[in-house]
Amino acid sequence: MNEPGIIAFTAYRNDSFQNTITVTDGSNVAISLATADVKMQIRTRPDGDVKMTLTEGDGITVGGVGNNVITISRIMNIDQGGRYYYDLQAAFADGTVQTYLRGPFVLIEDITL
User: Fold this and answer.
1) Cα torsion at 108, 98, 71, 103 (round to 10°)?
2) What would the pLDDT profile of 58-75 be if each residue is shown by its tens digit?
3) pLDDT score at 21
4) Is pLDDT at 53 greater than 70 in this prediction?
């Protein structure tokens, strides 16, 4: 089992958030996500309420030459700012599920509405 990378994300509530992640193996070879379902959830706690789910076509795009570049792009319209937790995983056609990224997601309250 590969341990997921840990990245702390910070965004402003109701603003656009965008980040790009490139998925490779330990030898820096592209891991193709062409046949995988990629999903990300933001929760109040690791086992808490789901505040946002992003899927391919709804906040997540998979592309790149090796089909290993994940672009996250979404308006962060969660009901309130605070410290949340997320992970990003891929479910492959053979039934394998791999979590590639996890960490805290800090959502800062916006001032200007």
Assistant:
1) 20
2) 999 999 999 999 999 999
3) 95
4) yes
